[in-house]
Design a protein that fits this description.
4 helices, alpha+beta, 4-stranded antiparallel beta sheet
Length: about 110
């Protein structure tokens, strides 16, 4: 993004939700795959895991709500701010999740 002349503010709006998403996929989804597409006017991000899924997306979007394990919390994660922060920094965010199958999060940051 820097080589493309994208503003530092846009860097932050892409880096923060990607970081939050990656950590969330590791803690809750057993890992996953991230696809980033950079266009002249936007950055599209798709995070896809094959974890346990999110039974209640509305609840998971509440600040402070977390299902992180004690182990994850002991490492400083699991504050329940991952999904809310992802939404905060992006222009659009959509979550599709099926319990027992996994979760796909699509986010866009307009440049």
């Amino acid at each position: 993004l820097k080589r493309l002349g994208v503003s530092p503010e846009a860097h932050r709006r892409v880096a923060n939700p990607l970081y939050e998403g990656e950590i969330t996929m590791v803690i809750h989804g057993g890992g996953g795959e991230v696809t980033v597409t950079v266009s002249p006017d936007r950055v599209d991000m798709v995070l896809d895991d094959h974890g346990k899924g999110i039974p209640d997306i509305e609840k998971a979007m509440q600040e402070g709500y977390s299902t992180a394990s004690e182990e994850a919390r002991s490492l400083g994660f699991g504050a329940g701010m991952g999904l809310p922060n992802m939404k905060k920094y992006t222009d659009t965010m959509q979550i599709e999740s099926t319990v027992g199958v996994g979760t796909t999060v699509r986010m866009t940051v307009l440049l």
